[in-house]
Amino acid sequence: MLETSEKLFKRAQQFIPGGVNSPARAFNSVGGSPVFLEKAKGSILTDVDGKEYIDYVGSWGPMIMGHAWEPVISAVQETAAKSTSFGAPTEIEVKMAELVKEMVPSVDKIRMVNSGTEACMSAIRVARGYTGRDKVIKFEGNYHGHGDSFLIKAGSGPLTLGSPSSPGVTKGTAEDTLNADFNDLNSVKKLLNKYEGEVAAIILEPVAGNMGCIPPRKGFLQGLRELCDAHDTVLIFDEVMTGFRVAQGGAQERYGVTADMVTYGKIIGAGLPVGAFGGKQEVMSVVSPDGPVYQAGTLSGNPLAMAAGYMLLSELKKHPKHYDDLEKKAAYLQTGLIEVMNKYEVPHHINRVGSMGSVFFTDNEVTDFNSANTTDQEFFKIFFHQMLERGVYLPPSPFESWFLATTHSQDLLDKTVEATDSAINVVLKKMGDA
Ligand SMILES: *Cc1c(COP(=O)(O)O)cnc(C)c1O
């Protein structure tokens, strides 16, 4: 059926590792050939065979206003005509920094980079340089990109592929990364006490999104804030996914907890390659050329990327009603999905924060890595392909979040619920036959 995709995948596998430029796209955890996409508009994707899908990946987050949103397209076109890169300062970088400061008041200074990975790598270097300490605490199942320090019990691709740490990461690096359990303050306290005076930073996804969507328990973020204050440790919120999504000011605003440093990616670049790290003046003052912590990039603050990101963030700032709208749409979809699961008595837990969420096929409440792992992966695998066949493009892993855009109309959401009903019906039959 997806002939062209399959042909392209065969060709891709000859010259690209696994046929993909990022493992999360490879369909490894659901099986089959990945769908090669041709174009998209709003929440509708079109693949190379001309088949259309309702999109719940949104390029893994950036497409909060839907694909090919006209103001971003125009901004990129107009900017491109004036040159795609200078490697010298431009006005749009200044406007971008000012805009972020208005939207996220805790970010006194911000440095643009080219990916979320780069943002997180840079942030911990800054935290280490600032504190003069080496160790970093992260949480099992959280994903902060593919920097060496983070590939220790990480979420997303590594979790899906069942390789929690990666060959090529040195023992020394692994020793400086300490793993705590998400939503468990005691596990953090133990590490801070054991390594008193050695922990530079605690980094986390304030809403976990890379082991499926897992909200922070009440008091968890505040508790981390207090622990960091008590131990002079830098609190880093990795808001690559949650930034400008769960609220204009990200998780910091939604939960009323202020981090010392924040990292961004995804929405901030509107689908172009952008990341950023920022934070309090005092911490950011160590970044070169102000301070001794080196960090640089030939294409950082790239005009095309800045023009696109600035256009998208401006819209979100100007019209906060987008967030109410997204919240309503997501709640509507969640209710519809729960009704279907209940109708067929499918064990499920649907976690959701604003316009991100995920469906776990389990009876357990999902609050951390271990409970996320109780989801029925075999069930998801069949479900995923049944949905794909019915024109619904879900993230190809049970451990990824689904994203909504303002372009998900009531009609699309209703169609998704209908597809789910018929898909679940078939999954149950197939599971019964097996
Ligand atoms: C996607 C993601 C990253 C990595 O960003 P890239 O742009 O893929 O390098 C880091 N942290 C979180 C929370 C993410 O969701």
Which keywords apply here?
2 domains; binds pyridoxal-5'-phosphate; alpha/beta; 40% helix; 434 residues; single chain; Aspartate Aminotransferase, domain 1; 15 helices; four-stranded mixed sheet
Structure write-up:
- The protein is of the alpha/beta class and 434 residues long.
- It contains 15 helices and 14 strands.
- Helix 12 (321-343) packs parallel to helix 15.
- Bound molecules: pyridoxal-5'-phosphate.
- Pyridoxal-5'-phosphate is lined by residues 115-117, 120, 143-145, 205, 209-210, 238, 240-241, 265, 275.
Brief digest:
The protein has 434 residues and is α/β, with parallel strands linked by helices. The protein contains 15 helices and 14 strands. Strand 1 and strand 2 form a beta hairpin.
